[in-house]
Amino acid sequence: MKNERSSLLEHTNSTKIQNDCGVKRVTPITSNKAFIIAVVFSSLILDFGSEAKAQYIIQLTRELSQHAVNETLTQHKNETENSCGRRFNETTREEILGQKLAAKWSFYCNIAEHATTLPVVMLFGIYSDKIGRKPLFVMSTVGMFLEYAIKAVAIYFKLPLYFFVLAAAVEGLTGCRYLFNIARNSSIADTTERNQSRTSSFALVDVFLGIGTFAAKLGTGYMISGSGFFFPVVLTAGLNFLMVIFIISFVPETLQRKVKKKSTCDLFRDSMSFLYDKTQLHGNKRWKFLFCFSIYISMEFSAMAVSGISTIYYTGFPLCWNSKNIGWFTASSSLIHTALGAVILQLTTKKGRDEPLAILGLLSLIGDNTIIGFASQSWMLYLGTSVGVLSILTGVVIRSAMSRMVIESKQGSFFMVYQLVGIATVLAGNSLSTNIYQATVSILRGFPYLIAACLYFFVLIMVVILYISGGTQTKVITKGSNTTQKSPNRTASYGTNTQKSSAVNSCENVSSEV
Q: Residue 464 pLDDT more than 90?
């Protein structure tokens, strides 16, 4: 006699369901060497160029501040050995004005980049479940190539900083790094099961991102010190060009489903439907998904409270760091936060709930920002980043939890909305941080970090509420069965079908929240 589970599958047209929703269980993309190389080098290239850009703006605005107070402008150099310069100390107008100008131009670049990228990410994001992931990888990388090509020209010919704003706008029109992130996260979701394995895959990719960031931050500091700003920026442009060729040639496409032709309006409506249609969420718990989304928004906004001023903060008095100091600190911070933090996450996600990990991560972030906010010596910054060793946990846990709630056919749409929210919070938080820094630099330079610590405390309260409410863990149970359905085995090649029961779970949403 057939059991209830086999009876359910027998009465369900599994093949038809699988073809309609396109769910195909495959080997995790994290095992593909080309994908990993693209992830590592994308992180390396992005951080390599962004650090050079930030330090160039700081140096140029410092020289502009000397002009503003009628002091003799020293001959333009690519690098000064002491970040504060011989004329700078805690009481001079040049130091305060230079810091304010650097924050102002960072604000302009931030507006130009993120205001233009919002509609682009929205347009290509809603098509990501139709055209696939690979075109997004390519478009984003092409945009970064164009951005740094313009910046290289501006540095070589010593053009005004308006050209940096123009370069930021060009990158925004090609989706910036956000299209790349949508494609990367969607590829992981396409090829992992709806359980802790997805959390582990996100954590593993974050390790790879940390490796690229570590190499970039350390290498940029020494390269700027030895050869100035032009070479790192033109090298960034060249590496992005090579990345475009590599992605086209080797990175696999993980989206195998065929979506019917629809208008842009219909696609946009469908892409947003998981926000209001609880049947497109596993467990039908829309309130819990939206609560997790509010935690993510709060997390992003808290992080952006200091993102726009960190390099400016390091170069100012009393730290007065040069490019080597910044390189060593940011590289070690990246290594500690991503590599060690992700290893801890990998060891602890096999069993139990994820929310306690998010709580530990937030406590780590609060301590990190509080210490750095009051830092008056270099060792205090290293102490702060050491306290923040668990900071990676919260972001990975929340991202994975939301992805697991959304049905498989909406993963691209989910990560599009995820990135749109990220862009909006960057636009708001980064702008807020640079303006707050301009207003408080003469009183308490680390004030934005203290604001970030307070914001993380409120996020901590939200995660505790989520934990008390039962968290985000769900069990996939077939109707009439008392046992949890086992995950089907994956095949070794991309796009190959596996057990039909996987498609039943993915498309019919017969799961229930426990």
A: yes
